[in-house]
Every structure is written in structure tokens, then in C-alpha cells.
Design goal:
2'-5' RNA ligase family protein, four-stranded antiparallel beta sheet, 8 strands, Cyclic Phosphodiesterase, Chain: A, alpha+beta
């Protein structure tokens, strides 16, 4: 088993008082300059996607309605790198999209598939995520190779500390949490509930679109380009 990343523990410890006190963050439909930008993501296969969806449904029992259901099959992903602030007008035909695609294809030609292990869930002040632990250095090398290939186009995430965890968010809080104590208890019981190896064999350039149907909300992916990890 890979060593557990202590960042997940810190996220959980910070989330518990926020949830119990009702001060958790709440997502809103995206606006220009905000969250949910064009990103490069990895999309888990059908088995892993089914696990994510089931965990999301379990979390919703306690979280209640109104949240962004990120564990849905058309939304679940692992973000590898965000590329810019949200732009409602962002299009697959933009000049910069071609540059992103070229960098993505370069990484695909040089990179082999990578494996992560889903180990369980954690809470954050903004949602519920499934923990993903790299089984070797391959996933981190993939991130580094992508940063190099993007060059100046990597500016957006270069503003902050490098990513130090892999994860898939299954719920983004966007409303009051119906049963915060129940959600905390459920998460505690599922911190180490999984041991599922997930192989990622492609990277996807995607934008996100807000969707609301029958009161259920999520950010759906709109994939623009996929590059197989064929190195």
C-alpha cells in the first residue's frame, strides 16, 4: 500500500468544525474570473466511475439536496492542471485551445499510463473527495511533464503551491448540509474503505458547464480533446 498523504488528514480536520458549525464553503454557478475553468483532467474508467457515483449517493443521504453532484458519470474526473480563470465564452475554436492541444499531445506521446489507488474519502470545507494515492512516481512525473510542455501557458496554477495530492471530488457543497454530524460520521467510517487501483491512460482537455435538472445540480464536462498516454 502507498503511504497515506497527511494532507488528506489536515483537510478532514479543518472540515469537521466548519461543517458542524455551518460555516462550510458553498459553490455557486460559475462566473467569469471564477472557479471551474478550462482544465486538463483524467477521467476514471467505468469501474472507478461507478464507485465514485455510489459514494456520492451515500454522501448525499447526509448532505441533502442542492449541492453540486460531482461524482456523476458526466462530471467525475481528477484534475491534473487548471489552465485559466473561468470564461463563459471559452471555446474549442479559440486560438489558445490549439496551443493547449499541442502541449497535451506532446505529453501523451512521451508518457505512459499511470496508476493511482483510491483509498477512501475525506472531507474538505468545500466538499467531499475520494483520496487517490500514487503507487509510484509516475503520476507526479506526468504532472511535471505537463507543466514543462505548457511552458508560459502554465501560468494560472503557477500562482500557487504545486499540487500535493491526487483526488476526485464527488460533492461540492452548494447549500446547507442537512445532517452535518451524520456526514462527518460517514466520512470517518470511510476514510480507508477502498483499495482500488485505477489506471489513467489518457488526458482530456475540457471545459465545464453548469447544469440543473429537477433541482439536481452539477458541473458537466464538455470534452474538447483527448490525448492517449502512449509513451
Amino acid at each position: 500500500m502507498p503511504a497515506a498523504n497527511p494532507v488528506f488528514d489536515r483537510l478532514f480536520d479543518d472540515a469537521v468544525p466548519a461543517l458542524l458549525g455551518g460555516s462550510h464553503r458553498r459553490d455557486e454557478p460559475p462566473v467569469d474570473g471564477g472557479r471551474w475553468p478550462v482544465s486538463i483532467v483524467a477521467v476514471p474508467g467505468s469501474e472507478a466511475s461507478g464507485v465514485l457515483a455510489d459514494l456520492m449517493d451515500d454522501a448525499l443521504v447526509h448532505a441533502g439536496p442542492g449541492h453540486f453532484e460531482t461524482g456523476r458519470s458526466d462530471a467525475s474526473h481528477l484534475t491534473v492542471r487548471a489552465l485559466e480563470p473561468y470564461r463563459e465564452a471559452a471555446s474549442a475554436t479559440d486560438d489558445i485551445t490549439g496551443q493547449w492541444v499541442a502541449a497535451l499531445d506532446e505529453v501523451g506521446r512521451a508518457s505512459a499510463p499511470v496508476t493511482l489507488r483510491f483509498t477512501g474519502v475525506t472531507l474538505t470545507v468545500s466538499g467531499v473527495m475520494v483520496q487517490a494515492e500514487p503507487v509510484d512516481d509516475g503520476p507526479w512525473e506526468l504532472m511535471r511533464r505537463l507543466r514543462t510542455a505548457l511552458g508560459p501557458l502554465a501560468w494560472f496554477e503557477d500562482q500557487w503551491q504545486e499540487r500535493d495530492i491526487w483526488y476526485s471530488s464527488i460533492l461540492h457543497f452548494a447549500a446547507p448540509v442537512l445532517d452535518p454530524a451524520g456526514l462527518v460520521g460517514w466520512a470517518e467510517q470511510n476514510r480507508a474503505s477502498l483499495a482500488l487501483d485505477v489506471t489513467l491512460d489518457s488526458l482530456v482537455l475540457t471545459r465545464f458547464r453548469y447544469r440543473e435538472v429537477d433541482g439536481r445540480r452539477h458541473m458537466a464536462m464538455e470534452p474538447w480533446h483527448a490525448a492517449a498516454l502512449a509513451g
